[in-house]
Amino acid sequence: MRHFIEVSDFSRQELTNLIDVAKDIMENPSKYADAMKGRLLATLFYEPSTRTRFSFEAAMLRLGGQIIGFSEAQNSSVSKGESIKDTIRTIACYADIAVMRHYLEGAPKLASAYSDIPVINAGDGGHQHPTQTTTDLLTISMEKGRLDNLNIVLCGDLKNGRTVHSLVKALSQFENNTFYFVSPKELKIPDYVKSYIKESSFFEVSSLEDILPSADVLYMTRIQKERFENPKEYDRLKDLFILNKNKMILAKKDMIVMHPLPRVNEISEDVDKDKRAVYFPQAKYGMYVRMALILKLMKEKEQSKDDFEDSRHQLYSTCDNNKCVSNHEKMDKVGFGLLDPEKHIYTCEYCDSNYAM
Amino acid sequence: MRHFIEVSDFSRQELTNLIDVAKDIMENPSKYADAMKGRLLATLFYEPSTRTRFSFEAAMLRLGGQIIGFSEAQNSSVSKGESIKDTIRTIACYADIAVMRHYLEGAPKLASAYSDIPVINAGDGGHQHPTQTTTDLLTISMEKGRLDNLNIVLCGDLKNGRTVHSLVKALSQFENNTFYFVSPKELKIPDYVKSYIKESSFFEVSSLEDILPSADVLYMTRIQKERFENPKEYDRLKDLFILNKNKMILAKKDMIVMHPLPRVNEISEDVDKDKRAVYFPQAKYGMYVRMALILKLMKEKEQSKDDFEDSRHQLYSTCDNNKCVSNHEKMDKVGFGLLDPEKHIYTCEYCDSNYAM
Amino acid sequence: MRHFIEVSDFSRQELTNLIDVAKDIMENPSKYADAMKGRLLATLFYEPSTRTRFSFEAAMLRLGGQIIGFSEAQNSSVSKGESIKDTIRTIACYADIAVMRHYLEGAPKLASAYSDIPVINAGDGGHQHPTQTTTDLLTISMEKGRLDNLNIVLCGDLKNGRTVHSLVKALSQFENNTFYFVSPKELKIPDYVKSYIKESSFFEVSSLEDILPSADVLYMTRIQKERFENPKEYDRLKDLFILNKNKMILAKKDMIVMHPLPRVNEISEDVDKDKRAVYFPQAKYGMYVRMALILKLMKEKEQSKDDFEDSRHQLYSTCDNNKCVSNHEKMDKVGFGLLDPEKHIYTCEYCDSNYAM
């Protein structure tokens, strides 16, 4: 059985199919209005996230399905210290498919290993948030008509923004995309993300104005004062990274501005009325791509072999990342897959932390 | 597009139509069982209110629609400091109509100004609660067979009871209604409410017994000990304002007793079995009138011009009411409409606070 | 009208019918997919219990019905100090049937006395949890093919486990069942439970190994360290009461292991893969038996005479159990039914506490 724990669980072909189905749903909603009649989606939100929860719930309801779930762990048995494994095994008795958001990295991956029903990762700590990436891909495909031959400018906190990391990874699979990273030095894009892109296709830029004129896609992210070693530094730099009406003048007429939302102040409100601002439509695309995802996972009956098992090379008792679910749930061994045979880099099966062994 | 932020958003004709539709739903529920099939209602409760939330959710579900929502702000993105404007713009991507309860006065009004879907005010702080008023009108119409030629006694906290204020305003539009206000001096009905009624049609009374024999409708409200300057005063006075079996003996056989609920102790339980007590049926009427309201707003496709804009006379940067949403959300200017040309009284577009300018 | 407050509300015949309907639903789900179309279930959870709430919500949704409700009292009007009586009378305006979980003993019983719709007890403090018992009966019937001629071993905390008490009571109505109670001395099965069983049909055993070979059904329960007068005692004894792979070797090939869940550590994970472990299927049976229960209560139109009233012998102003709802809600008198005419034992109508009078 298939799950959706990270974007790489789907091939490039599967991602493009997903986008095509989402587009068909937008054009022919009535065709899908009863597709999930009599089916239940469990929304297991161990930390609150209204936007993501609403998007999944609206997706299932618009497919004619129904919802059970909780929106914060306090309301749930987990407060009685039940293990994630037991929780998912019980949920699988009541629901046909589950969406999990968890503060621990790898929690949805662990759940999927013990689940009789498809599990979708709706965000696990700072680790993965794959349906945000599929949302972004659908948005670009809809607004630009393509996923290749694009100049993509990513601006803000590029170090901690997980959605940026997996978007770059996904878009680098398509031909002739060039990436421009605009961020303060404390919040630079990590090397492992650059490793997805071939040398000549990315550039690190110090100011938004310089690069805006050539951008096809501008992807803005939250930039939190607290992230700066010295908060004064933030006040000094923020004008370089905040998008406003004046900067929009520099951009192409057909450029698009994206943002995962919620936005704080990195995009000033005077940009909202600009037709190039697509961050609210982006939210709507997120609902449709999740409808397509639910349909896909519910259709796939055949048991899938756990791809990880095959590439598993090492087993250790723990992972050194203290946010990794393997340090919070009882388990015999943690698997570490071989990431880089030359440098002997291994990666944790749950949180993807890398180690030289 | 139409919203329902305060009772005066609807004309007298629209209110009577709303009541007629509610009655038709009660008589022919099956006719409406699928009216909202495939539509989603978002219930945005920034403060808890089970009764009101259940009433709206039951209304939508009995129309064949579905629900997404939150029942307290902590579970929602707003805890991440997202603005009301951004929240409603996102919700509008997922849902077809929204109900908002908020602790800030004018919050639903602000939301409606940025919303692509109809917004219903389910209570904004101490300001407005229009669907309680439509509930009260349907209850009187059902139980008394008319909305005019009534002796209406309102008892308890008439100063802080927003539902009382807008009920008086609504009923004063109908012919030959007389109002009797029974309250302790600290909790008298405000002058601005009296200004809705013509001089000869209202009286302030000190005790409930005195006026009960001539009442057609008795509207009881919560009377909170804390409201009294001197709590001992409460114990001395409360017998004057608490309804019990003995007082009911004084009332007409066809009088009705109403209460917005929840009641604390202002109506003793020995009254519950009296067939003149209609405060529980009143709750049921509330569900049906909300079904009619959802149907009305969803039907009205055409964009409505913002009536306020036309009557707007003054723009200032802030409103002096610190509970007004304009002091908590970023906005350029607050509009002040001319309420009283003689006395030069202006009213805030969000919280309706009055100022002489 | 019928309610389901404790297992004894249903006759043995009704319980077996309930099980038969549950089995028919499992075999022909589509036959029941729209049975509750247009009907609303209110889930009133005054304390959180995800498992039980999900089970009821999934049951109603799989019958084509809909849900309104709250999952903890804080989100509800009860935080405004509304009485249970008023709450249920209001809920009855919106919903067609209600499920209540409450921290006070007898709260659902009180609600049922004031409700116009069927009320189901989903657990009231340490008192009753009847749908767990119907779940257990369906599980045994499905997995063993019978409810009689069984050797039933109950292990763990038999003193505080309400589910154990009412399961023993229910199974003792069926022929030739023998009960084996395995527990530390501090947590022995209470005498009143033994009084349901005839002398020759139960035995108290000190260790699980000794009795396991002859068991047809092993019912494990949570055993909380805190329950021990001396926690060290727990560490010394726990091996006697924790089930693991090695102990399973002693058991029959067709024995079944049950647990109400959530489990903490009384069953080690190495047992989960054993096909005799049925505690997760048990959760699924719980959903189906609740579907049957909802169908039964919704079908029974006729008003049922309150059986309690008939057997009521004494009225007093209070019950001595400070967790009894009668000490927390305003009420004239509490009824005490005659339980044992010889010993003059009377039982409280709400919490079933016994008193010699």
Automatic annotation (TrEMBL), chains A, B, C:
Residues 2-141 form the Aspartate/ornithine carbamoyltransferase carbamoyl-P binding domain. This is Aspartate carbamoyltransferase. The keyword Flavoprotein does not apply. Residues 318-354 form the Aspartate carbamoyltransferase regulatory subunit C-terminal domain. SUPFAM superfamilies: Aspartate carbamoyltransferase, Regulatory-chain, C-terminal domain, Aspartate/ornithine carbamoyltransferase. PROSITE patterns: CARBAMOYLTRANSFERASE. It comes from Acetoanaerobium pronyense. GO terms for molecular function: aspartate carbamoyltransferase activity. Catalyzes the condensation of carbamoyl phosphate and aspartate to form carbamoyl aspartate and inorganic phosphate, the committed step in the de novo pyrimidine nucleotide biosynthesis pathway. The lineage of its organism: Bacteria, Bacillati, Bacillota, Clostridia, Peptostreptococcales. It catalyses: carbamoyl phosphate + L-aspartate = N-carbamoyl-L-aspartate + phosphate + H(+). Keywords: Pyrimidine biosynthesis, Transferase. Pathway: Pyrimidine metabolism; UMP biosynthesis via de novo pathway; (S)-dihydroorotate from bicarbonate: step 2/3. Gene3D superfamilies: Aspartate carbamoyltransferase regulatory subunit, C-terminal domain (2.30.30.20), Aspartate/ornithine carbamoyltransferase (3.40.50.1370). Signal peptide: none annotated. Heterododecamer (2C3:3R2) of six catalytic PyrB chains organized as two trimers (C3), and six regulatory PyrI chains organized as three dimers (R2).
